[in-house]
Each structure stands twice: as structure tokens, then as C-alpha cells.
TrEMBL record:
InterPro entries (UniProt xref): Rad60/SUMO-like_dom (IPR022617), Ubiquitin-like_dom (IPR000626), Ubiquitin-like_domsf (IPR029071)
Domain Ubiquitin-like intervals: 20-94
Protein name as annotated: Ubiquitin-like domain-containing protein
Domain of life: Eukaryota
Any Pfam family: Rad60-SLD
SUPFAM superfamilies, per the entry: Ubiquitin-like (SSF54236)
Length: 98
């Protein structure tokens, strides 16, 4: 199908101001957070920490088995409305038994 000069292709780029709803799960809790596609994940981290009543720096966040960084965005991670993010307590240290 050919488009005439007066017809335009549909805009398939996500609108930077469009919010999508993301689901964050931690243990047996689940929250929904709306985030614009160009906002950094830092905003989601802070909102999740507040909702789970803990310092967000004690959590690590994963999407599709990849750890999210604070400067990642919805657009850079190619997230869609309703996608799920897993939050886990970050464990530091540990030792091996001898």
C-alpha cells in the first residue's frame, strides 16, 4: 500500500509526556506506579521505597532479568503499560563456611 503525498505515516514513537502504569512487586506486596517514558527509574525507586516503607537504596530492581539502574528510563528499557518490575532486598557481604 502506497501513501500519497497528503497522507502521513502514523507516529509510532511513544509520547514523552505519556504515562504508563508499571507494577512493582516486593515479597507479597504489589504497587502500581505511573511514570512518563522519559523519566529516570530513580523516580520509580523512590516511590516504591516510600510505598514499601523502606529506604529505596536497600532494594534492587529487576525488569526482564536485568537489573535496573537509576538513570534507566521506560523508553530505554522498552517498557510497556502493565509491565512488572521485581524489587528485592539487597544483600551485602556474606562468607563461605570453612
Amino acid at each position: 500500500m502506497l501513501l500519497s503525498d497528503t497522507e502521513q505515516k502514523p507516529d509510532i514513537k511513544p509520547d514523552a509526556n505519556e504515562k504508563i502504569m508499571l507494577i512493582v512487586r516486593h515479597e507479597d506486596k504489589e504497587i502500581k506506579i505511573a511514570l512518563k517514558s522519559n523519566h529516570a527509574m530513580q523516580k520509580l525507586f523512590e516511590a516504591a521505597g516510600k510505598a514499601f516503607q523502606m529506604d529505596y537504596k536497600t532494594l534492587k530492581f529487576y525488569y526482564n532479568d536485568k537489573r535496573l539502574r537509576p538513570d534507566d528510563s521506560v523508553a530505554s528499557m522498552e517498557m510497556e503499560d502493565g509491565d512488572e518490575i521485581s524489587a528485592f532486598l539487597e544483600q551485602l557481604g556474606g562468607s563461605s563456611a570453612l
